[in-house]
Amino acid sequence: MEGILASLGIKLDVLVAQIINLIILFLVFKYFVGNKLSAALQERKAKLLKLEEAEEAYAELIAQANTERDVMIADASQSKKNMIEEAKQLAEAKKAEIISLAQQEAATIKAKADQAQKAQSDELYSNFESMVKSTAAAALKKLIPGKTDAHQSYVQEITVK
Fold first, then answer.
1. SS3 content of the chain, % helix, strand, coil (to 5)
2. Model pTM score
3. How many Cα atoms occupy the beta-carbon half-sphere of 115 within 13 Å?
C-alpha cells in the first residue's frame, strides 16, 4: 500500500499527522465554537418555526378578516336594500296621505264653489225676478195708465207663478 501512496506522492507519516491535526482542529473548534454554533443553529431553527407559525396564524387571520368583511358587506348590502324598501314604503304612504289631503281639499273647494255658485244663482234669480217685476210694472203703467191696483195684482200674479 505504501507503493500506491508513494506513487501518488503521499507520505504515510504526513498523512497520519494531518489526520491527527484535523481531529485536534475539530475538537478545538467544537470546544470553542461548536456549542455556540449549535445553539445559534437551534435558535435559528426555533425562529424559523415561529416564523412559519406566525405566517400560518397571519394567513388564518387574513382568511377570518376576509370572511368577516364578506359578512359585513352582505349585511350592509341587505341593510341598504331594507332601507331603500322602507324609504319606498314611506314615500308611498306619504304620497297616499298627500293625495288624500289633496282630494279632501279639492272636495272642500268644490263644495265652497258649489255653495258660491248657488248663492250667485239665487241672487241672480232674485235680481231677475225684481227686474221682471219692475219692467212689468213700468210696462203696465204705460199700457194701462191710472189703475195701480190692477198693476200690482198682475205683477203679484206673475211672480207667484
1. 95, 0, 5
2. 0.43
3. 6
Cα separation, 5 vs 9, whole angstroms: 6
Q: How many Å separate Cα 38 from the centre of its chain?
A: 62
Residue in the structure block whose three cell numbers are 435558535:
43
CB 140 within 8 A of CB 155: yes
Which three-class secondary structure state does DSSP give residue 126?
Answer: helix
Does residue 155 contact residue 135 with C-beta atoms inside 8 Å? no
Euclidean distance between CA atoms 66 and 57, whole angstroms: 14
Distance CA 85, CA 65 (A): 30
In order along its 161 residues, the chain shows pLDDT tens digits of: 667 767 788 788 888 999 999 999 999 888 888 888 888 899 999 999 999 999 999 999 999 999 999 999 999 999 999 999 999 999 999 999 999 999 999 999 999 999 999 999 888 888 887 787 778 777 777 777 666 666 667 666 666 55
Tally the C-alpha atoms within 13 A of residue 105's C-alpha that lie toward its C-beta: 6
